[in-house]
């Protein structure tokens, strides 16, 4: 096992792999919308982590650095393929994760959970890239606004604005399904 030292902390590749393999895989699934591609991306990401852990400056938490590396890798994969899909149905988290009032059970009327997920998935796909990223990191990865700001290399107020606008845009798109 190779020990990697940075900022008075020791990181072993094995410990990083064990702690982040599921997180990275799930995030890759959400971005790439394909399990095989997500597995390939995970492999590539861990190679990048192994090769570049020495460049980790310790200015943020290692998890922030890993999220940024993962998102950038996935976005590059999507650009190469010219596909703008974001979340896989198999890994889509239940609608209840949303805290916006319009996205509660009363909103959906007669739609079952599968239909709700499909409708919500389609609405999220239509969001601008930065709004999607901020929303997913907050609602599905449970990152704080501060952590998201570091991952996205932006300010906390920008993250707040992105999430607010994402919720507004989702509400507008989903109003036609509102229970009458």
What does this structure look like?
This protein is mostly helical and 180 residues long. The chain has two domains: 3-81, Orthogonal Bundle (Rna Polymerase Sigma Factor, Chain: A); 95-177, Orthogonal Bundle (Arc Repressor Mutant, subunit A), CATH 1.10.10.10. 63% of the residues lie in helices and 4% in strands. The protein contains eight helices and two strands; from the N terminus they run ββαααααααα. Strands 1-2 form a two-stranded antiparallel sheet.
Key attributes of the depicted protein:
180 residues, mainly alpha, Rna Polymerase Sigma Factor, Chain: A, Arc Repressor Mutant, subunit A, 2 domains, two-stranded antiparallel ribbon, 2 strands, 63% helix, 4% strand, globular, disordered N terminus
CATH uppermost class of the largest domain: Mainly Alpha
Structural class: mainly alpha
* CATH third-level topology of the largest domain: Arc Repressor Mutant, subunit A
What is the CATH H-level superfamily of the largest domain? Answer: Winged helix-like DNA-binding domain superfamily/Winged helix DNA-binding domain
Quick synopsis:
It is built from 8 helices and 2 strands. It is mainly α. The longest helix is centred in the first third of the chain and has 20 residues, at 13-32.
């Amino acid at each position: 096992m190779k020990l990697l030292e940075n900022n008075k902390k020791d990181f072993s590749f094995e410990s990083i792999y064990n702690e982040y393999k599921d997180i990275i895989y799930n995030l890759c699934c959400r971005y790439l919308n394909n399990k095989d591609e997500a597995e390939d991306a995970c492999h590539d990401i861990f190679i990048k982590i192994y090769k570049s852990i020495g460049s980790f400056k310790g200015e943020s938490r290692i998890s922030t650095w890993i999220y940024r590396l993962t998102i950038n890798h996935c976005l590059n994969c999507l650009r190469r393929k010219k596909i703008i899909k974001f979340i896989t149905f198999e890994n889509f988290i239940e609608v209840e994760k949303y805290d916006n009032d319009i996205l509660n059970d009363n909103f959906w009327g007669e739609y079952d959970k599968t239909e709700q997920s499909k409708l919500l998935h389609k609405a999220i796909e239509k969001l601008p890239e930065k709004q999607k990223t901020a929303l997913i990191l907050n609602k599905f990865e449970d990152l704080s606004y501060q952590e998201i700001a570091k991952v996205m290399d932006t300010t906390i107020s920008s993250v707040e604005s992105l999430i607010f606008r994402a919720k507004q845009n989702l509400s507008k798109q989903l109003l036609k399904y509102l229970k009458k």
